[in-house]
Amino acid sequence: MIRCEHLKVTFNAGLATEKRALRGVNLTIPQGEFITVIGSNGAGKSTLLNTIAGDIRSSAGRLYFDDRDVTALSAAARTRDVARVFQDPLAGTCGDMTIEENMALAYGRGNRGGLRLALNERLRQLFREQLSRLNLGLEDRLDAKMGLLSGGQRQSVSLLMSALQPSKILLLDEHTAALDPKTAALVMDITDQIVAEKKLTVLMVTHSMRQALDHGSRTIMMHEGQVAFDLSGEERSQYGVKDLLNLFAQIRPDGEELDDDKLLLGA
Amino acid sequence: MSLFSFLGTLEIGFIFGLVAVGVYLTFRVLDFPDLTVDGSFTLGAALAAALILAGVNPYLATLCAMFGGAAAGLLTAWLNLRFNILHLLASILTMTALYTINLRVMGKPNLALIAEPTVLSPFESLGIPNMYLKVIFVAAVVIAVGLLLAWFLNTQYGMAMRATGANPRMAQANGIVINEKIYAGLALSNGLVALAGALFAQTNGFADSTMGIGTIVVGLAAVIVGESLLNSRSMLVIVFSCILGSLLYRLAVSVALNADFIGFTTSDLNLITAVLVGLALILPHFRREWKARKAAQGGAA
């Protein structure tokens, strides 16, 4: 479970460029819930994700995993609970290292530091099994450099890596945005599989309204650093992309136009 | 080239193999260009020589030299991580400070080890001629260090260090505390370079305040020569290609200096080094351009 209490983040506090990225976010995500997060550019979606991961320190408010206060924990310490996949396929893996080495790194998440060899036959077997789920033939290329794979392949492997260690929370930051539609669909498939299998609590930021409604069980829209609305259950199942767009218009009474094409297109 | 000078070349080549793996750790593994080595090589030699002259056991003196080098590496890392000083500049500051410290450690610009015991002394009773013994001893040390380092880079800790240099954001997302890895890597790298300095002082019988000048370029040359010869993903091959690179580099320099018809003298060494390293850096660039042009022509045809 994740609980945000009055979470605030301010960049460049006190300067002319001051930006209040989060303005008191209150959000409770029960164990095992899959939330999709939408909102226009600068609404605070990524800031929320990065604050939960620990990359950004909140300037006020508290953050709890289960009932543990993790507000003061570093990003590295939070990785015991949190796994993540980035938007940029290059960001989640080391291009200079082999597939098996990358997976070994992810396997060490949460219990690291030993002078034991990072790889052994048992782990290689585990990695091969996991990779064979992707149907990309990567299970036979364990010692290939990660940099040789395509963006979609790297992102798929990143997803597998995020699930190698038991974690409770998975943060997905537009992890299909840089992929072509076909690969994006494949990666979303694997996402759903892994989430269901590991019963993870998931926050997925997306630019696609279609994706936001088709995956998970709850959708929140961020606007100006706050949760503008929160859809779930019966109500959500009746929503279409058009209805979401209407909601968008409502929270922007000044008639501001949606300037982001990706938001309109359901990929 | 005489046998004597050939063995001398091998000996220096092996010793600078340690410098090469140290430079590989910072430049390639951590992506932290560290010029501290110019100072820590001399520091290792100075500490070992001064301690041996003060009557300390040579093995203990060598160990102290390594710790001294490691401390220098930590200082550079601290300046960079704690105060955000650019890594190159932080290492230049440490290197500059070390020049004075080395003079203080030695008490004068150079120290001679003539009749003093060295790490070689316990083996002198074996009856192997001294010029062979030195090469065998140095080779054994360097190969042992190479094996240990290759193993280390394949452990969980070592792999975390590699990820820190390759993709810090990914490393952090996987629970790696990156600052700690940078401290550890710089300490290890400079410790190895100081070990090289300590061995150099003991096999060559002196320590000199200027002996470290250009260490970084020689180390980098060895790494680049090694890389261009062997391209592998195996840590064992990579580490030993650094050592091989150092040997080949030394042989190349030695041949150049010994070829009378070219007319080089030892004072030309730095220019030769710079030209060799420059070529090693430039040639892969031309090779890529040539390949790209060929591919473009092939596509048009």
* H/E element order of chain A: EEEHEEHEHHHEHEHEEHHH
Gyration radius of chain A (Cα, Å) is 19 Å
- Measured by DSSP, the beta-strand proportion of chain B falls in under 5%
Give the number of DSSP strands of chain A: 10
Biggest β-sheet: strands ordered side by side in the sheet of chain A = 6-7-8-3-9-10
The major sheet of chain A is characterized as:
6 strands, mixed
Mean pLDDT of chain A: 86
- Give the biggest beta sheet of chain B: 2 strands, antiparallel
Estimated structural class of chain A: alpha/beta
CATH fold category name of chain B: ABC transporter involved in vitamin B12 uptake, BtuC
Fraction of helical residues of chain B = over 70%
Helical content of chain A (DSSP H or I, runs of 4+): 25-40%
In the CATH hierarchy, the third-tier topology of chain A is known as Rossmann fold
Strand order of the largest sheet of chain B: 1-2
**Can you tell me the overall shape of chain B?**
globular
Beta-strand content estimate of chain A: 15-25%
> Roughly how many Å apart are the termini of chain A?
29 Å
Name the structural class of chain B. Answer: mainly alpha
| Cα Rg of chain B | 20 Å
| Text of the CATH class of chain B | Mainly Alpha
Number of helices of chain B: 11
